[in-house]
Structures are given as structure tokens and as C-alpha cells.
Amino acid sequence: MKVMTVKLNPKTVFGLILVAAGVLVVLLTFLANHVKTGDAAPSAAEPAGLTCADVQAGARLLTDMGWQVGDSNQKTITVPRNWDAVYTEYNALQQQQGYDLTPYKGKQVQLYTYEITNYTGYDQGIVADLLVSNGRVIGADLCNTSAKDGFMLGLEKRK
Question: Which residue has the higher pLDDT, 149 or 57?
Fold first, then answer.
């Protein structure tokens, strides 16, 4: 049986400990920044994790919220790069719901519009809009399209 011994001076031992600690710090930092956990909370762009693959999926989503859906429409729109006061106010409404359209400036998104037929106090003129990007709802609203007493609210379950 052979036994090997190595004689290290204290400076060498201290240096090896520092190198090992440095490698450990770099490794832990990398892992903390690049590994995703499966139970992460939804981001601000998707507060409830709502998905919407197409117009029919949007209609089901609204129906699940208690709304009766009539006619629907789909079109591709571009979120403006530069916002006027109206778009800034609209984004503030979205932010109240946990959405934020800022990352979508200048990008094309789908706009699904649905006639709502059971909004209390209104026989017609109420629509729900869903803004969708890559199958995820990024914005939503309920609005009255009447010029006389129009309004716009965040999308909510029917009361």
C-alpha cells in the first residue's frame, strides 16, 4: 500500500479555498438567473394566465365569465409605437387588471371583438374586446359603443 502526502503552505490552501468559493458563487448566480421553476406566478402581461387560441376560444372564455356572446369579429392590429393620451389611458385601464401593453408597442396583435347580449340595463351596444398575442390574452375590456352614454371598463365576471 502506498500513501502519498502533499505538503501545502497556508497561502496555497487559502488560494484554493478562494477559487472554490468563487466558482461556487458564479455557479449559483448562473442557476438562479437561468433556471425556471414550474410554479412561477403569472407575469404582469398575463395576470390570470388567460389563453385564447382563436375567436371560438375567446367566446368560451367570455361565456365562462357569465357573458352571453353574440356576433364576433377578428382582426390584426398594430399597437402604436407612440401613444397619445387615449392609448395611455387605455393602457392604464389594462394595468389596473394586471396587463401592460408597453412591451407590445409596434407589434401586431389579434383583436377579438364580441357582442355582449346580457349586460344589465343595455339591450345592445355592449362589446367585449380581447387583445391576444401568441395565444395569450394581453388586454381586455368591456365597452358601450354608444356615443350618448359610452363607457369602457376592465373585463370582469358578470355580476
Answer: 57
Of 109, 111, 141, 110, residue with least CA distance to 126:
141
Domain ranges of the chain: 55-154
Residue showing cell 402604436: 80
3-47 pLDDT, tens per residue? 877 787 878 777 777 767 766 666 676 666 655 443 333 343 345
Given a contact cutoff of 8 angstroms between Cβ atoms, the answer to whether 100 and 143 are in contact is no
Q: pTM for the full model?
A: 0.68
Q: Are 52 and 130 in contact (CB under 8 A)?
A: yes
Query: Torsion angle, CA of 51/55/58/62, rounded to 10 degrees?
Result: 180
Tens of pLDDT, residue by residue over 109-125, are 999 999 999 998 888 88
DSSP string, 88-136: HHHHHHHHHTT---GGGTT-EEEEEEEEES--TT-SS-EEEEEEEETTE
Q: How big, in percent rounded to 5, are the helix, strand and coil portions of the chain?
A: 30, 25, 45
pLDDT digits (tens, 9 = 90+) for 68-109: 999 999 999 999 999 999 999 999 999 999 999 999 999 999
